[in-house]
């Protein structure tokens, strides 16, 4: 069991329980040693400071002008989640760091009160006493009745895992900004409504007062004004002033820069809603026509009937009146939208940080493989932001040019600052920590000890952290004033290329370990201004002495020169890393010098002596965007091609990739990897659907992997069956029982290359006779066997079209398909594999298929393999060259060649496809004999 | 029971390793006609005419205009090559109309609906720039769709086939008769033509099903009972009559066959095609190669298909393609036999089986055998299986591939996979170059 990868299987998957239950108990000598720190807490996964909540949650708090900081709601809205955690206390903490000066009132030199459109502020803070770390997003909402018209709120993402908050900062910030923007939009709408009502009230009051004054005037013949009359006149004057003030406010709130919304990819308005408003606006046109911006009014005039009230002259600033709730402050549509978004955020960031990061990395890498990723991956979720993509696509070339310009002209400093902006020095802790761990722990490490090791990490963590021991409980670890991490991306993009002197520096120190203040603001960042002087001036408390290169990039960075070279390889690596994450089985360190070389340059010492990579996965954002920027140029596929020639030129690539593929499986079973330990900072045990859209597919993958594993073990002829699928020959699973057939189809579906990005060519269950069109469309079909005349017909068509299909008979357990003598599939589907879990196997398959994709990519995009070098060259010599390449360079044997050729054909079709029209479905086939396999 | 030659799954010489299914028709597709190098039109019982790109399989136009099934289709291109060629097609339908379509714009140019009966065949006489429609009578039209002249009512059955002969003559198959018409220019020198019946040939015993012109000197007809008559195209005299060439006993070299009866369907000459020296006949389920020089059948495959052969065509490379009601398309190669006299199989051996061979005298056959033994044979080099119903017709596009149409409403484009793959690579690198991605970027 020591060698079995599944030991590390901490609680990520539900099926684990039954998996483990079904296995016999381990002999004593093989069992995992007990958790050495068990005395500290029975649960080895518990945090050092044992947080009082069970899982991450989102807290919305308000700094009420009446009662001070108070929690409003949590997401998920479940008392169990926050547990014994003191929300009131924590609200106080998080609200107290809102240092933002959101001045509203009468600024000097201005006659009327001014509204400030303040940016949100973003702070990371830790409360080590509570064991809680939070990303805190401060925002202000407008309320006519509030002091200075504003009410400060904050949304906090609270987690027990500090790394999660730090490493997901950008993502959290981006997501929360969206939610906040939504909330604020709703609030502005509500505020404008409120103002309008108020204006009507005032108007009405004025009319009433006016009338009264007139009456008084008439009634009064004495020639002088009574005190009453003067009072009334004053009142009238103050009402009039108030009207002007409110009109001004209304104008201000309406003049909120809407382009801001348009720029972001968040569109809070629904068209129908807008339409509605237009109609409503028409009704109201008469009443609102005197207002300054008729164009804008539609948005705010959704108030069909309102009967104005008389306003008392002395509108007392009363503290006993009830303040509006959050719900009342915001338009209901936007409020529910915001809540939905927050729920979405909660789901997105649920689970362990390692899992999130791995997922982000693999997604980023997949995105880069824009040419090949459709083959085996579900890429639909990569198009989350189609308009953005399109936009980038249009500007691809010019952006590219700009990027290069940046590269040449703008030297390191600026870039460094922009990155250093939110990266606080605290973040060097993990790295330092790991170095220590390396020294102290490594020698006696076995893979089975990864849990304890993690705990050790935490202890070490505690030791290193000054502020924790100093008893000060709040640290502001980093802040960023507003969202636009995105806007910076272009400049960040050029970062790894710039020969920054800081790159090689060791990142230790610069951290305030002893602090007198209870609040440490370690780093803040004004988002709009990237100029360091401003930055320092406005936030003097910020520590900015050492602007570091963003170590987010450290994990999987490659040097610029090689970057395209490694794109695919990286994918492989990350795939393997994925694998490792779960079963800690792959030894990455051995596989390729290309990969490891660049890393030491970054001064991070990622490897230990035996070459095991030990960098926890890092967010990938910058690198991804850099690549995106540097390719560009296609509307539909924004990334290949630049890498073409480097591939051809790099002699190491092929050999290394071959090695990778050779080693991957062997290593899987018995090598240990340290990486998995990074995953065990598990703050909660909830599964992490890192991406909501993937949640279903995640489960599907698991299931498919499990079924596939079973299939491989049960059927000795799994190899030719899988070969059929990989080479594009339709496989028919024939059987009487739907469940059995569907299970087999699910199992095999992971081997089916997609023909286009739209749908997987898998049909789970068919009962009617098949047609040639079906083989063109589907590559894996579950077919019902019937004992009726119709069934005979079905079988007849099968024999008629036998040349296009392989038939797997689930009932008699036979397979009729062409012979397979290659080596690739045996690596893919080894029936003696040590892999035991579905998702692990799925990842194994994924990694090998990705290697295959890269081979197919290489093959497809090598010009001379398909077209003659000179005009006189005969077709024959091109064919020879092609075959030589496949055999010698790619190391393919026999039928493996056909697999790569088929994939290459799919790649070509996908690439040359015009954006408007779909891929012409065509059926390719070979005239090869089939054989019957039996168990 | 069936002794149809099969080839198995390994077909090295079969170039068609890629197919494209073209959907669009809602009923049997009966006709395919080539428009130019890369376009073709299809038509059938649903009355729709579809234009396709043979290269990409893209549907170019859907031509709606007929209300009934289409009975004849003919390409009608303008003769003047100087200007950009104006491609037209003529279609005749059971709704008694003929429509002329513009293939470039996909629009109907003109419609003629003054017919008394369904037009069953259309022939274009390029040389005279007129076209003929054959139904119960024969009409001559010019390009502007003016009726130039017409014959009197011939029969109710109408003309089933038309073929152009030298000297402004056409041969029309009307039932069992073959009628020769001549077009005579009107005296006044205007564009007018008169049509004149010249001769009626009544040599066939049964309905004439196929009519093909071999060269300027000869044309061939085939009838329902399996008669094949070679005619002189100038004086319309009969040169050769072959009646029993399909008779199995005459060609004992082919595999023994067990037949219970010889239905007329199995002997009807469904389709004829020819090259300079040979006539290829689809007779029942078989294919026969008749050499005009030697005046005998030089090769045959008596049961080439499981069911009637509907269409055959000779390819330039000594290959022959046939399609059949059984839904398959087969590719044959005409090969020379290495050692001459074939296996001297005793015919008596066949007779031992005792059934079949109705009324055939074994002795006679044995005598004839020596001289009639074909020097060639048809070798099956590949078959294309894709349609689920009778393959009505096919169109050979050379390098571009082969289009087949069938009663299962589909058209399948068969392509050479190697070539397509190469072309795709070419396109791919062109696109790469277009996008400017081939430059090094460092």
Automatic annotation (TrEMBL), chain A:
Positions with biased composition (Polar residues): 488-503
**Region (Disordered): which ranges?**
479-512
Provide the alphabetized UniProt keywords. Autophagy, Cytoplasm, Guanine-nucleotide releasing factor
What GO cellular component entries does it have? cytoplasm; guanyl-nucleotide exchange factor complex
Q: Which Pfam families match?
A: Folliculin
Q: Which residues form the UDENN FLCN/SMCR8-type domain?
A: 48-908
- Name the source's superkingdom: Eukaryota
GO molecular function terms attached to this record: GTPase activator activity; guanyl-nucleotide exchange factor activity
Q: What is its main location?
A: cytoplasm
Q: Where found in the cell?
A: Cytoplasm
Which biological process terms from the Gene Ontology are attached to this UniProt entry?
Answer: autophagy
Family designation: Belongs to the SMCR8 family.
Protein name as it appears in the record: SMCR8 protein
Q: Which organism is it from?
A: Herpetotheres cachinnans
TrEMBL record, chain B:
Instruction: State what protein this is by name.
Output: WD repeat-containing protein 41
**Transmembrane helix among keywords:** no
Spell out the residue ranges that the record assigns to WD repeats.
22-62, 63-111, 302-342
> What is one GO cellular-component annotation here?
lysosomal membrane
Write the lineage as a comma-separated list. Eukaryota, Metazoa, Chordata, Craniata, Vertebrata
Q: Fetch the InterPro entries from UniProt.
A: WD40/YVTN_repeat-like_dom_sf, WD40_PAC1, WD40_repeat_CS, WD40_repeat_dom_sf, WD40_rpt, WDR41
The subunit structure is: Component of the C9orf72-SMCR8 complex, at least composed of C9orf72, SMCR8 and WDR41. The complex is formed of two protomers, each individually consisting of one molecule each of C9orf72, SMCR8 and WDR41. The protomers homodimerize via an interaction between C9orf72 (via C-terminus) and SMCR8 (via N-terminus). Within each protomer SMCR8 (via DENN domain) acts as a bridging protein between WDR41 (via C-terminus and N-terminus) and C9orf72 (via C-terminus). The C9orf72-SMCR8 complex associates with the ULK1/ATG1 kinase complex.
Mainly localized where?
Answer: cytoplasm
Query: What function is annotated for this protein?
Result: Non-catalytic component of the C9orf72-SMCR8 complex, a complex that has guanine nucleotide exchange factor (GEF) activity and regulates autophagy. The C9orf72-SMCR8 complex promotes the exchange of GDP to GTP, converting inactive GDP-bound RAB8A and RAB39B into their active GTP-bound form, thereby promoting autophagosome maturation. As part of the C9orf72-SMCR8 complex, stimulates RAB8A and RAB11A GTPase activity in vitro, however WDR42 is shown not be an essential complex component for this function.
Q: Name one GO biological process term.
A: autophagy
SUPFAM superfamilies to which the protein is assigned, alphabetical? WD40 repeat-like
Q: Where in the cell is it found?
A: Cytoplasm
Checking Gene3D superfamilies in the record gives:
YVTN repeat-like/Quinoprotein amine dehydrogenase
UniProt lists the gene as: Wdr41
The lineage's top-level taxon is Eukaryota
User: Pfam families, per this entry?
Assistant: Beta-prop_WDR41
Alphabetized, the UniProt keywords read: Autophagy, Cytoplasm, Repeat, WD repeat
Q: Does the keyword Repeat apply?
A: yes
């Amino acid at each position: 069991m020591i060698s079995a990868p599944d030991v590390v299987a901490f609680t990520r998957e539900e099926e684990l329980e039954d998996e483990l239950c079904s296995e016999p108990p381990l002999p004593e000598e093989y069992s995992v040693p007990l958790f050495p720190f068990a005395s500290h807490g029975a649960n080895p996964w518990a945090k050092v400071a044992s947080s009082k909540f069970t899982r991450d949650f989102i807290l919305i708090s308000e700094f009420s002008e009446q009662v001070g900081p108070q929690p409003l709601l949590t997401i998920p809205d479940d008392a169990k989640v926050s547990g014994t955690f003191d929300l009131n206390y924590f609200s106080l903490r998080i609200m107290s760091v809102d240092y933002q000066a959101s001045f509203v009132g009468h600024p000097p030199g201005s006659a009327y009160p001014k509204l400030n459109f303040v940016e949100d502020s973003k702070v990371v803070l830790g409360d080590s006493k509570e064991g809680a770390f939070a990303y805190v997003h401060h925002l202000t909402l407008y309320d006519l009745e509030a002091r200075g018209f504003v009410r400060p709120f904050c949304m906090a993402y609270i987690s027990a895992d500090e790394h999660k908050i730090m490493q997901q900062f950008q993502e959290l910030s981006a997501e929360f900004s969206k939610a906040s923007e939504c909330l604020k939009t709703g609030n502005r709408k509500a505020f404008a409504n409120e103002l309008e009502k108020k204006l009507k009230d005032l108007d009405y009051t004025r009319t009433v007062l006016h009338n009264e004054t007139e009456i008084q005037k008439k009634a009064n013949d004495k020639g002088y004004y009574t005190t009453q009359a003067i009072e009334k006149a004053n009142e009238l004057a103050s009402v009039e002033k108030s009207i002007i003030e409110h009109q001004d406010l209304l104008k201000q709130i309406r003049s909120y820069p809407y382009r801001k919304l348009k720029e972001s990819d968040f569109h809070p308005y629904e068209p129908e809603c807008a339409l509605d408003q237009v109609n409503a606006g028409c009704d109201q046109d008469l009443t609102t026509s005197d207002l300054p911006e008729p164009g804008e009014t539609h948005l705010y005039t959704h108030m069909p009937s309102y009967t104005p009230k008389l306003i008392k002259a002395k509108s007392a600033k009363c503290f006993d009146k009830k303040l509006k709730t959050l719900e009342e402050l915001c338009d209901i549509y936007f409020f529910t939208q915001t809540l939905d978004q927050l729920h979405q955020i909660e789901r997105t960031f649920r689970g362990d940080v390692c899992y999130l990061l791995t997922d982000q990395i693999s997604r980023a890498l997949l995105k880069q493989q824009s040419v090949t990723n459709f083959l085996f991956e579900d890429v639909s979720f990569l198009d989350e932001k189609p308009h953005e993509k399109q936009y980038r696509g249009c500007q691809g070339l010019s952006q590219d040019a700009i990027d290069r310009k940046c590269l040449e002209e703008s030297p390191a400093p600026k870039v460094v600052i922009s990155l250093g902006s939110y990266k606080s020095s605290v973040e060097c802790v993990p790295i330092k920590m790991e170095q220590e761990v390396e020294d102290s722990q490594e020698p006696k490490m076995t893979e089975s000890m990864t849990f304890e090791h993690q705990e050790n990490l935490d202890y070490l963590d505690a030791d290193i952290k000054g502020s924790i021991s100093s008893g000060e409980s709040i640290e502001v670890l980093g802040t960023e004033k507003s969202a636009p991490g995105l806007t910076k991306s272009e400049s960040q993009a050029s970062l790894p290329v710039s020969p920054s002197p800081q790159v090689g520096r060791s990142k230790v120190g610069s951290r305030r370990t002893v602090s007198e203040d209870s609040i440490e603001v370690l780093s803040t960042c004004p988002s709009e201004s990237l100029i360091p002087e401003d930055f320092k001036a406005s936030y003097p408390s910020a520590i900015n002495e050492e602007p570091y290169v963003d170590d987010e990039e450290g994990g999987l960075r490659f040097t610029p020169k090689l970057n395209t070279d490694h794109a695919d390889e990286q994918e492989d690596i990350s795939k393997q890393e994925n694998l490792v994450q779960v079963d800690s089985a792959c030894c990455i360190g051995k596989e390729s010098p290309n990969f490891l070389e660049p890393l030491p340059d970054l001064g991070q010492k990622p490897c230990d002596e035996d070459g095991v990579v030990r960098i926890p996965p890092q967010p990938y954002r910058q690198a991804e965007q850099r690549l995106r920027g540097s390719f560009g140029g296609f509307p539909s596929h924004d990334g290949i091609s630049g890498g073409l020639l480097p591939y051809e030129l790099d002699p190491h690539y092929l050999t290394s990739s071959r090695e990778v593929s050779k080693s991957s499986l062997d290593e899987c079973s018995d090598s240990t990897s340290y990486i998995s330990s990074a995953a065990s900072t598990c703050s909660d045990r909830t599964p992490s659907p890192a991406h909501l859209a993937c949640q279903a597919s995640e489960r599907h993958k698991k299931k498919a992997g499990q079924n596939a594993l079973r299939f491989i073990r049960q059927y000795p002829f799994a190899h030719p069956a899988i070969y059929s699928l990989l080479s594009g020959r339709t496989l028919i699973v024939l059987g009487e029982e739907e469940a059995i057939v569907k299970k087999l189809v699910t199992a095999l579906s992971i081997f089916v290359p997609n023909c286009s990005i739209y749908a997987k060519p898998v049909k789970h269950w068919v009962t009617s006779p098949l047609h040639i069109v079906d083989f063109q469309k589907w590559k894996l079909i579950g077919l019902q066997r019937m004992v009726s005349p119709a069934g005979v017909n079905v079988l007849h068509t099968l024999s008629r079209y036998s040349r296009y299909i392989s038939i797997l008979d689930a009932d008699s357990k036979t397979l009729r398909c062409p012979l397979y003598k290659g080596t690739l599939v045996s690596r893919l589907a080894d029936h003696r594999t040590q892999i035991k879990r579905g998702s692990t196997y799925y990842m194994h398959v994924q990694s090998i298929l990705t290697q295959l994709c890269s081979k197919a990519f290489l093959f497809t995009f090598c010009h001379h393999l398909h077209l003659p070098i000179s005009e006189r060259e005969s077709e024959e010599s091109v064919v020879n060259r092609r075959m030589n390449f496949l055999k010698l360079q790619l190391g393919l044997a026999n039928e493996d060649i056909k697999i790569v050729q088929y994939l290459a054909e799919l790649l070509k079709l996908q690439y040359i496809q015009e954006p408007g029209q779909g891929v012409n479905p065509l059926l390719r086939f070979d005239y090869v004999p089939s054989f019957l396999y039996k168990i | 029971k069936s002794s149809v030659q099969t080839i198995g799954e390994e077909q090295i010489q079969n170039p068609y390793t890629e197919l494209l299914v073209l959907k669009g028709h809602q009923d049997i597709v009966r006709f395919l006609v080539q428009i130019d190098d890369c376009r073709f039109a299809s038509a059938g019982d649903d009355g729709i005419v579809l234009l396709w790109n043979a290269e990409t399989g893209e549907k170019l136009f859907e031509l709606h205009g007929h209300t009934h099934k289409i009975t004849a289709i003919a390409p009608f291109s303008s003769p003047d090559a100087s200007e950009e060629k104006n491609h037209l097609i003529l279609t005749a339908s059971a709704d008694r109309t003929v429509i002329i379509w513009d293939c470039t714009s996909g629009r109907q140019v003109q419609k003629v609906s003054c017919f008394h009966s369904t037009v069953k065949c259309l022939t274009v006489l390029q040389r005279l720039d007129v076209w003929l429609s054959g139904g119960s009578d024969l009409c001559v039209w010019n390009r502007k769709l003016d009726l130039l002249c017409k014959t009197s009512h011939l029969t109710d059955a109408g003309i089933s086939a038309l073929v152009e002969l030298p000297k402004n003559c056409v041969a029309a198959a009307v039932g069992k008769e073959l009628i020769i018409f001549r077009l005579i220019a009107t005296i006044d020198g205007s564009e007018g033509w008169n049509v004149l019946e010249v001769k009626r040939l009544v040599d066939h015993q049964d309905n004439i099903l196929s009519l093909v012109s071999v060269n300027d000197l000869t044309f061939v007809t085939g009838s329902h009972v399996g008669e094949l008559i070679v005619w002189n195209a100038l004086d319309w005299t009969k040169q050769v009559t072959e009646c029993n060439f399909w008779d199995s006993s005459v060609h004992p070299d082919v595999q023994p066959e067990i037949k219970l009866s010889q239905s007329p369907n199995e002997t009807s000459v469904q389709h004829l095609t020819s090259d300079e020296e040979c006539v290829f006949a689809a007779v029942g389920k078989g294919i026969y190669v008749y050499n005009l020089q030697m005046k005998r059948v030089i090769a045959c495959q008596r049961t080439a298909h499981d069911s009637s052969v509907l269409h055959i065509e000779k390819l330039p490379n000594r290959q022959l393609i046939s399609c059949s009601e059984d839904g398959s398309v087969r590719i044959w190669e005409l090969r020379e036999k290495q050692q001459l006299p074939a296996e001297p199989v005793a015919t008596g051996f066949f007779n031992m089986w005792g059934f079949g061979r109705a009324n055939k005298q074994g002795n006679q056959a044995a005598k004839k055998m020596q001289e009639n033994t074909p020097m060639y044979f048809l070798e099956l080099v590949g078959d294309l299986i894709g349609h689920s119903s009778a393959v009505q017709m096919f169109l050979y596009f050379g390098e571009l591939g082969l289009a087949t149409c069938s009663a299962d409403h589909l058209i399948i484009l068969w392509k050479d996979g190697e070539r397509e793959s190469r072309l795709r690579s070419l396109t791919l690198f062109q696109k790469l170059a277009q996008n400017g991605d081939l430059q090094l970027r460092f």
